[in-house]
Specification:
By secondary structure, this protein is of the alpha+beta class. It contains one helix and nine strands; from the N terminus they run αβββββββββ.
Length: about 150
């Protein structure tokens, strides 16, 4: 077959295919102009509405990926932090120390009154915990503070 003959055959095939597509398109467009059949409204009966089912979503305890049951998370309750009132020490002055061998006596002025303390002796909630000739540690209402000479 020569080249010209193949071209004519293909041209005829293309024209036939496009004509089929065109007739189908025109047939579809023309069908919109047709009137539908009349519906007798006297025979129309609406369907009764069914009551809808209510669904609730529940939590699943099983983890599908780990195949384990998860425990509910614990609620951490934090205690309210009550700020402590600052403890105000009485006016304390370290006056000196009296040594007698291994025994130590400390002369301390508390609120203007001089008193002699031994270690761990409590007077008016003031207690001497430890001390040297240059400094002493005093405990007052649970708080410890260091005083110097």
């Amino acid at each position: 077959m020569n080249k010209q003959r193949k071209t004519y055959i293909l041209l005829v095939a293309v024209i036939i295919i496009w004509s089929i597509v065109g007739f189908q398109f025109l047939g579809y467009v023309d069908s919109e102009n047709e009137l539908p059949e009349e519906i007798p409204y006297e025979k129309f009966v609406p369907k009764e509405a069914k009551e809808k089912e209510l669904y609730t979503v529940s939590t699943h305890e099983r983890d599908p990926f780990l195949d384990k049951y998860s425990r509910p998370k614990k609620v951490i309750r934090r205690k309210e932090v009550v700020p402590k009132e600052p403890i105000i020490f009485p006016s304390i002055l370290f006056k000196g120390i009296i040594k007698n061998g291994d025994k130590k006596l400390f002369i301390i002025e508390v609120d203007g009154v001089q008193q002699v303390f031994k270690i761990n002796k409590v007077i008016n909630e003031v207690q001497v915990i430890s001390g040297t000739s240059k400094k002493i540690e005093i405990k007052y209402k649970g708080e410890i503070q260091t005083f110097y000479r």
